[in-house]
Amino acid sequence: MTAAVPALAARWLASQQQAAHRGVGVTVINFNTSAQTLRCLASLAACDEPPAWVLVLDNASRPDDYERLRAGGQALPGSELRLYRSEVNLGFAAGSNFLLDALLAEPECRFLGLLNNDAVAQPIFVTRLVDALAAAPSRVGLVGGRMHKLHAPERVDTLGIAIYASLMPADRHDTVDPFFGPTGGCCFMSRELAEQLLAVSGYCFDARFFCYCEDTDLVMRANLLGYEPVYVDELVAFHEGQASTGGGFNRFIAYHGIRNTVWLHMKLMPRALLWRHGFWLLLAHAMTIGRHLLAGHGALLLSVYRDAWAERRAFRAEHREFLAHAKLPARALARRFAPRFYRRGYFRLVLGQLWQGMRGARRAG
Predict the structure, then answer these.
(1) Checking phi first, is residue 23 left (phi over 0); if not, alpha (psi -120 to 50) or beta?
(2) What percent of the chain shows pLDDT beyond 70?
(3) Average pLDDT of span 328-349
């Protein structure tokens, strides 16, 4: 059975002819959040340097949400706008792959951007990030910038991705932590990197991840292939956060977040680093298990680790195949990790939650 292919639903040519452009395209995915998507498109239209192409995928939203999105679409001043519709939810990973393939089909497209639909681009979004990518050596390939919270503009939302001594990835909140790469919700990549990822892996994002950690998987492969992502410490976008998944705790987020992290380690982490950081990695999983058990999520944990373990043979084979192309030694990769266990304050937070959970369990007993 072949996967459904999204169809082009509408296309609006730029309302103003661009004298010249640098070959910039940006992708946006909508899932039941048309108001946020239309707001995002308006922010891209207001950029100092509008993208030549803005491609939107409606990822099987409810009919009413899709109709609002289509009705709200309009010609942008400097960008060609295309709206695609998928009848099945492809997830962020496969949905992004479809849009990136469409951009790569444009011979003049040199820089491929991704922006979360609940983000609001600042006027410098395109110019600053593309400038950094265009001026950098070819082995950079990826660039990201500063995102703050939309409803608390003084607070950091993400400064990209960091990987810690526990080998756990997380949103980077402190510029002291090394920048491992940009998040998939706010970044640009070069055409060269996208084409090399396709040549080596067969995809940019791993569709099996669906969403969560799929950007870390891409960034890890880029690092191992010898690219060194660049961070621009300027505010390039505001982010509402989890508009499509509802925010807060839910089973969907927890399941994909934990399972996909296990898959990342099986698939890409050099064995030498798994041995060297093994104690901290096991401690991180023990803390995760403890927190979820005390919260009554035992069935969730069972399904997470069962499903992650079921794919071990496929990921072992891919591990050997991909690392045969790697140019960055394990020791050099480790130097791009943050030296502390995890984000600042995490140990204290989790130990406090475990203590409160145990006290609550004793009282209930």
Answers:
(1) left
(2) 91
(3) 88
pLDDT digits (tens, 9 = 90+) for 218-239: 999 999 999 999 999 999 999 9
The answer to pTM > 0.85 is yes
Residue 19 has pLDDT above 70, yes or no: no
**336: CB partners within 8 A, 6+ apart:** 163, 178, 180, 223
CA angle 184, 53, 21 (to 5 degrees): 110
What domains are defined for the chain?
7-239 (3.90.550.60), 251-364 (no CATH)
Looking at the chain, which runs of residues are DSSP E strands? 7-12, 24-30, 53-59, 80-86, 111-115, 119-121, 142-149, 152-158, 161-163, 169-171, 186-190, 230-239
Amino acid at 121: A
Residues 6+ apart with CB under 8 A from 27: 55, 56, 57, 96, 99, 100, 103, 112, 113, 114, 115
